[in-house]
Amino acid sequence: MKTCVLLTFLLLLFPGICVAQKNDITVYGYVTDSVSGEYLQEVQVISGTIGTVTNKYGYYSLQLPKGNHTLEYHYVGYRTVKKELKLTKSDRIDIIMSPGLSLKEITVSPEEKSQLFTEKGMGKYSVITAKMEPLPSFAGESDIMKTFQLLPGISGGAEGSSDIIIRGGGNDQNLLLLDQVPVYNQNHAFGLVSVFNNAALKKADIYKGGIPPVYGGRLSGVSSLWMKEGNMKEHRQTLKLGTIAAGLLLEGPVIKDKSSYLISVRRSFLDLIYQGIMALDNNPGAIPGFSFLDVNAKVNYKLNQNNHLFWSIYTGRDRFSMKMKEDNEKGKFYFGWGNLTSSIRWNSILSRRLFSNITFYFSNMDNKQENQIETNDIKNIQQNISRTNEFGGKISFDYTIGENQKLNFGIQSSLQNFYPVMQYVKNGAETSYNKGLGFSLLSIAPYIEDKISFGAIQINPGMRMIYFNNENMAYIRWEPRFRITYHPFSGHTFMAGLTVMNQPVFQVYNTNYGWPVDYWLPFLSENKPSHSWQVSVGWHYNISPGFDLTLESYYKKMRDMIYVDEPVKDYIGSGDFQHPDITSGYAYGLELLLKFNKNRFNGWISYTYSRSYRQFIDQSGYFPFRYDRPHDLGAVANYKLGKSKKSVMYFSGVLGFRSGIPYKVATQYFPGQTPPLVENGYFEDFSMVDYYPKTPDIRMKNYFRIDLSFSTEKKIRNGSRTWQFSVLNVTNTQNPYIIYRDNNDMKMKQLVLFPIMPAISYTRKF
Fold it and tell me: 59: which strand partners?
């Protein structure tokens, strides 16, 4: 490791010495959308053989020699912009790009504006969320997490789940960011829908290898989602009605071309319909209810041409409840979970070569379970609450050294607080509150990355140093990062990367006492932060205009992974998580992606061969872990049926095949009891608590599903309307959601969550 650290530092320093700094003229500025006024990320800015791309905030800086230049701006789905310049000194040039496709643009890139995602080098994909709408969707809700699952090297969890499994690592090994703020729970409706409302999103990046040093804190991957900034030109509204939820988005200028707002609200409505029907019954008995709600909001303000402020917030909540009434006794059960994130960001052009971004943020996740019994004489309440929150700050800089070299560097710091289980009990007039065990984790991480081009070769050496302190122990870990890209001749690109990561937190999920308990914890006094390193190589080949082939392979090694197994010893949280199992593991795989885009037909075929193994430190031998899915095949196709000036129709299909995963089925059962609600007593009924083996004892059967959809969009007065009709699992394949052993006959049975399922949605844009 010391040799690796030294080598990385030498690679960072060497280019600054050896690259001649001949050019003192810098062209810089922002690139924005002509319709909305929003900044555009990763726009190609080219002058001859010299080029760059806009950063995550739409800013670019390019060094050029004196003289005449033709500056070209290219972005998928936008008309190419050309600027004829005679440079004698540095100049700021802000560019406005218009959506659309010109014939000349086809010669630059074969990708039409209908292309859903683009590859951005070693192990990275960028998804344009607006292009997801024609794809089949659960209950009419477009879901970025489900789209990620269709890409090679990325798989889903249980059937219908929004979890993502990247290269053999669990969902909790992925860093999930919304406007650069960590999100700790991504699931609505127990994972059937993700918390990210597609209407409020602009773009989503996902990294599975070659991860830049700006990201850290997880072992496997990074998902970075960006909210829209709000239209600076005109007020717009979007209303969407789906099978289970409705959404409304409002955006527009506060001050035209200077400040804008965005507000997006989505809520499920089946509970409102059901409860309305039940209200007609004078004695309905038990009334269940389930709902989810999320709200996205964003405001931004241009202080001047060099300084821009953003404030964004997200809040979402799921609620499951059951109300009962019998004679003089009323009962209520409630379970809910939710997220709250907020960030303030300040972008600034400090000089013609230096750009900065400062972010302060807050993130909170909590779960709450409540049992309540009320009679004429007494009211008894018990609440169990778990909470995780994080306060943090980041400052980053982009510095243009020369025409072939750029430097990204900065520092990040966060304070995380963990409360696994807090308990509140009210017995009549007596109340008690137990905050339980609490933990804190301080993290500080400076980082640096160099981007250097030598003709056909581009190298990206980087280093991230991270300091962890959990109040009892402190660690300093070095994380070298390295990527290299080589273009030996036209149409071919070879890539390789090294990524070292450390993860100081882990997730606990248990359901043994009748409700889900989902919380995060830091590494404890007896443990270390988890560690992984990954090497990957790849080859990209542009077969012909409209056809691209990519091959990638990887090997990943992991150690000191904290694993809390079922069952929990103590429902108030003083059991297994303090003495968890420690595992090591490795994963490897080969990924293939064939992307096509020809005339009216576009899509891709992906195939992944992957293996994922674990080993407990107190046992010998590796075993296939729950993320071991040898074969994963996906296919996506979109066909534009017809297009006129006022309407367009799409027929889309998605096919998925996955090997069955290793799975644990309970081998023993023993009586359990619900939490105490009254003094010296329990509920009369008892539950059965499952006992699971330490390693998987079966493998689920293979997964297969085909989804189809038809969409029609039409321009009408004051906007447009879109209808989408989807059918999920058209073959009605019985894919298991869970497998269990029946207590009566001890036979294994499966719960199927998705039989053939139709859905419809209607979207109206004003």
Answer: 30
Token look-up 């059967």 returns 701
Indicate the pairing of strand 25-33 with strand 95-97: parallel
The mean pLDDT of 504-526, rounded to a whole number, is 69
- 117-226 and 227-765 share one CATH topology? no
Is there a contact between 390 and 415 (Cβ–Cβ < 8 Å)? yes
Instruction: Give 369's contacts (C-beta < 8 A, 6+ positions apart).
Output: 334, 335, 383, 384, 385, 515
Exposed, middle or buried: residue 529 (CB in 10 Å: 0-12, 13-18, 19+)? buried
pLDDT at residue 579 is higher than 80:
no
Distance CA 406, CA 450 (A): 6
Longest dimension (CA), the chain: 90
**The pLDDT of residue 341:** 97
Structure-token pair, residue 323 = 């109300």
The domain at 227-765 falls in which architecture?
Answer: Beta Barrel (2.40)
Contact at 8 Å (CB) between 223 and 164? yes
556 to 535, 611, 659, 711: CA distances (angstroms): 7, 10, 20, 41
- How many angstroms separate the CA atoms of 225 and 584, rounded? 30
The structural domains of the chain, with segments of one domain joined by +, span: 117-226, 227-765
Residue closest to 401 by CA, chosen among 61, 29, 89: 61
Residue of 521, 631, 531 whose CA lies nearest to 169: 531
3-state secondary structure of 189: helix
- The structure tokens listed for 512 are 């043994």
Helix/strand/coil for 404: coil
Return the CA Rg of the chain: 27
Distances (CA, A) of 519 to 9, 82, 386: 38, 52, 6
634-649 confidence digits (pLDDT tens): 999 999 887 677 888 9
CB of 163 closer than 8 Å to CB of 193: no
Q: Residues 545-548: contacts with CB within 8 Å, 24+ apart?
A: 545/106, 545/110, 546/110, 546/596, 546/597, 546/598, 547/110, 547/594, 547/595, 547/596, 547/597, 547/598, 548/110, 548/119, 548/593, 548/594, 548/595, 548/596
Whether 602 shows a pLDDT value over 60: the answer reads yes
The structure tokens 């996955």 sit at: 658
Gap between the Cα atoms of 419 and 367, Å rounded = 11
CATH class label, 117-226? mainly beta
Cis ω before 567 (30° cut-off from 0): yes
Share of the chain above pLDDT 70, in %: 86
- The average pLDDT across 144-150 equals 92
CA angle 392, 396, 402 (to 5 degrees): 170
